[in-house]
Write a structure and sequence with these properties.
- This protein has about 200 residues and is α+β, with helices and mostly antiparallel strands.
- The chain is built from nine helices and five strands, in the order ααααββααβαβαβα.
- Helix 2 packs across helix 3 (about 30-35), helix 4 runs antiparallel to helix 6 (about 95-110) and helix 4 packs across helix 9 (about 190-195).
- The protein starts with a helix and ends with a helix.
Length: about 200
């Protein structure tokens, strides 16, 4: 990591910004946001236990999403076809149902922050795909806010076609790449409180 990137990590203060830096290293902004919020030690164990509970609930209640525990956080990945029609940022009824369950979970666990990251396949121009992915992430963020999740807890980012998880040379691969990822991690305020309580 360069001195500039190291300075960005130190000065970031939120998993979302750190995620952008680490994401460039790991190829995943969502994973980077979670890694950037890691505390470790006793404090990290407390947060990890709570994330275990939340991840199990999310896995049980959200259909069609992949829920993965990573470090001291949770990654939830939605195929974009579940949330949006093709080439659109209008949320489908099934997508609203999934986001409703996510909102309920976030209300039950109020000490978390989240980064919503939109992704596309490589069909179309880089600039169009970047804008579409940002619109989709923003639409999901706005929907969660309409369900009572505080704006301060959410960061919405578009990554376009820059973080593929499969080859764009096949339709199956392109379908996998069209997705929205949600990184859930302890809020900065909660991390500081847990650190004080678990020195």
């Amino acid at each position: 990591m360069s001195q500039r990137d190291r300075g960005a990590v130190i000065g970031a203060g939120t998993g979302a910004v750190i995620g952008g830096v680490i994401g460039n290293q790991t190829g995943s902004t969502a994973r980077g946001a979670i890694i950037g919020a890691v505390l470790g030690g006793a404090a990290g164990a407390v947060i990890g236990h709570q994330m275990d509970q939340q991840a199990k609930e999310l896995g049980d209640r959200i259909e069609g999403a992949t829920v993965t525990r990573i470090g001291e956080g949770i990654a939830v990945s939605f195929a974009s076809g579940i949330l949006y029609p093709f080439d659109s940022d209008q949320i489908l009824p099934a997508g609203r149902a999934n986001l409703d369950e996510l909102a309920l979970s976030l209300q039950r666990y109020p000490n978390s922050s989240l980064t919503i990251v939109g992704h596309t396949d490589s069909v179309g121009t880089d600039s169009y795909n970047l804008a579409l992915s940002q619109r989709r992430a923003t639409a999901a963020s706005a929907y969660l806010q309409s369900k009572g999740i505080a704006t301060s807890r959410i960061t919405a980012l578009g990554r376009g076609e820059t973080e593929p998880i499969a080859a764009n040379s096949t339709e199956a691969g392109r379908q996998q790449n069209r997705r929205v990822e949600v990184a859930i991690y302890a809020s900065e305020e909660y991390r500081q409180r847990i650190l004080r309580e678990n020195p």
